[in-house]
């Protein structure tokens, strides 16, 4: 369900170039009135177009240079409670429900491999977690990006 137009896509593109741009700067760049930009930004925010700001904070800055992915098998009936317990582990930065052999893909950040071992043990200690398989990230090859989707959307208008 598409709820954007060319102006919205131009705003999103401008924000990918300068995420801290002010309303005035965006208006000037796009040759729109400040009121138009303000209204569009409010509508985009209400529609869920923007992710949380904390996605932009690098865990390395906080002393967690390693990223790992845990494939977690759980007892399905206890999934909600298990997810609630995962939220309580600060090093868990993201989790996805999955199809396939593992039920969850949990992304964690850690200081070193010993810290990762302790995080994995904490996850395994959650009642209902049956098994984990851990992979250490060797590096981010394609950083989180959205510009290609914006460009694709622009061509479908």
TrEMBL record:
<dbReference type="InterPro" id="IPR000485">
    <property type="entry name" value="AsnC-type_HTH_dom"/>
</dbReference>
<dbReference type="InterPro" id="IPR036388">
    <property type="entry name" value="WH-like_DNA-bd_sf"/>
</dbReference>
<dbReference type="InterPro" id="IPR011008">
    <property type="entry name" value="Dimeric_a/b-barrel"/>
</dbReference>
<dbReference type="InterPro" id="IPR019887">
    <property type="entry name" value="Tscrpt_reg_AsnC/Lrp_C"/>
</dbReference>
<dbReference type="InterPro" id="IPR019888">
    <property type="entry name" value="Tscrpt_reg_AsnC-like"/>
</dbReference>
<dbReference type="Pfam" id="PF01037">
    <property type="entry name" value="AsnC_trans_reg"/>
</dbReference>
<protein>
    <submittedName>
        <fullName>Lrp/AsnC family transcriptional regulator</fullName>
    </submittedName>
</protein>
<dbReference type="InterPro" id="IPR036390">
    <property type="entry name" value="WH_DNA-bd_sf"/>
</dbReference>
<keyword id="KW-0238">DNA-binding</keyword>
<feature type="domain" description="HTH asnC-type">
    <location>
        <begin position="4"/>
        <end position="65"/>
    </location>
</feature>
<dbReference type="Pfam" id="PF13412">
    <property type="entry name" value="HTH_24"/>
</dbReference>
<keyword id="KW-0804">Transcription</keyword>
<keyword id="KW-0805">Transcription regulation</keyword>
